[in-house]
Design brief:
The complex is a heterodimer of chains A (135) and B (77).
Chain A: E1 2-10, H1 16-32, E2 36-52, E3 55-67, H2 69-81, E4 85-92, H3 94-113
Antiparallel strand pairs in A: 1-3, 1-4, 2-3
Chain B: H1 16-19, H2 30-34, H3 46-49, H4 53-68
Chain lengths: 135, 77
Amino acid sequence: MRTYEVAFIAVPTLTSEALDAFIAQMQSVVEGKNGKVVKVDNWGKKPLAYRIKRFRDGYYVILTLLADGAIIAELERRFRVADHVIRFLSVRVDEDLKRSEKMKIARQRKSVSRPAPAPQPASEYEAVPPAAPIG
Amino acid sequence: MPGPKRFSVKRKRVCKFCAEKISYIDFKDGKLLSHFIPERGKILPRRISGVCSVHQRQLSQAIKRARHMAILPFVAD
């Protein structure tokens, strides 16, 4: 099971019920094939940086999924067929997130081994005080 | 080499992403990415932005994805 981020832009002429129905439909596609929808991020109507098919804004929706390639292929097929989806992009992020986690842990370990001279930037991971032993 | 002199001494040598310990550059973060595409919308070269090579590759990929998703423009005026 890999982690994907699927982002799509829907036409601004949709009603919010139609949009929610479409999102629910996509969710059921994922769940039906043993995927899992981790997060649904609806940015609402936002202006586009350039005109796409005469539209100047659109509804941005980002889905974070645990799925495999077949599910993503099916989602993309539906996006392509749907009249009201004007752009989509799916990105596989599990490798990137794993790498980012490893770097954070390595940084944490480095800062524990030598006395921390400078204050660490605020982030949810650096909430652990530097004096705490790790591993 | 003939050409206009550059104020390269004034340029920061610190990579902004390394300094803030950001390891994943998200294409959805328009505000962060917009610092790296000046007026015309072109991606800033490393020697001007001071970004390290690892992050420049990630940044450039994130900017191209953001352009595809109309978060950033291809050409700006």
